[in-house]
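Q: what sequence does this backbone want?
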């Protein structure tokens, strides 16, 4: 079944999923980058550059796929919508030093990819039939239509292979966490434990819960990475809490970059 047939076939609608794999999505983004760089262009014109009929199902679903991978941003409404290449796409296409990292993040950005990687990524990916059965009948919420589930599995596996994702990072992280836990069990009472992070897979890829031990014995947990808006909000909340319960602080009154506080991978 062709990409267009799969999208336009009138069946019960499946959950959202990218209709192209990541390699194809980057190629589509590169076409726009070659013509317009990071400047916004009318969505219909962008779809024409991909040789699609503007406003067709396959054209709109391709835009949605690039957006899900974090390669495209969309502004406006209706026919006046505009699309533009994101900073991440610009760096990937331009072979920036962090290209591989950005590709791995993009691969897990679509929610269904993040869900499947969280379920199966710690081991070798199972046979297609296993993932198909999960998507059709076993996942919480809505299952996938039989007509599209095969394509969802194929694009997921293709994307994982293209991004060169494997279980090694997760396994090493878990081993490191187990070693830290073992050390903590033998720590002397009252001794402050080092900050630890636990990796989980979310819509934007690998997200970590960073646990920061506090002087009063409690633990503050922050999700990282965070957006600039999240950083601003968190800083405002912490500023407002100053002096509410604790009169003296033993840490300097400076901004803390939580990303830099993560253990090295």
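A:
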């Amino acid at each position: 079944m062709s990409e267009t047939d799969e999208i336009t076939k009138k069946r019960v609608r499946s959950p959202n999923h990218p209709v192209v794999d990541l390699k194809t999505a980057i190629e589509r983004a590169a076409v726009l980058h070659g013509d317009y760089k990071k400047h916004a262009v009318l969505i219909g014109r962008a779809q024409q550059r991909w040789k699609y009929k503007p406003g067709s199902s396959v054209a709109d679903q391709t835009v949605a796929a690039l957006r899900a991978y974090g390669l495209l941003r969309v502004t406006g409404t209706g026919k006046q919508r505009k699309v533009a290449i994101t900073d991440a796409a610009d760096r990937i296409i331009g072979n920036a030093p962090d290209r591989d990292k950005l590709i791995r993040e993009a691969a897990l950005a679509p929610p269904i990819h993040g869900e499947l990687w969280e379920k199966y990524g710690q081991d070798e990916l199972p046979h297609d039939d296993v993932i198909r059965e999960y998507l059709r009948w076993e996942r919480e919420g809505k299952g996938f239509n039989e007509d599209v589930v095969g394509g969802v599995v194929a694009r997921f596996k293709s994307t994982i292979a293209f991004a060169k994702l494997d279980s090694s990072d997760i396994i090493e992280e878990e081993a490191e966490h187990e070693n830290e836990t073992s050390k903590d069990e033998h720590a002397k009472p009252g001794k402050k434990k080092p900050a630890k992070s636990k990796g989980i897979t979310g819509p934007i890829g690998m997200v970590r819960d960073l646990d920061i031990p506090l002087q009063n014995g409690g633990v503050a947990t922050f999700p990282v990475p965070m957006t600039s808006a999240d950083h601003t909000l968190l800083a405002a909340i912490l500023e407002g809490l100053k002096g509410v319960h604790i009169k003296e602080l033993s840490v300097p009154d400076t901004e803390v970059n939580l990303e830099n506080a993560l253990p090295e991978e």
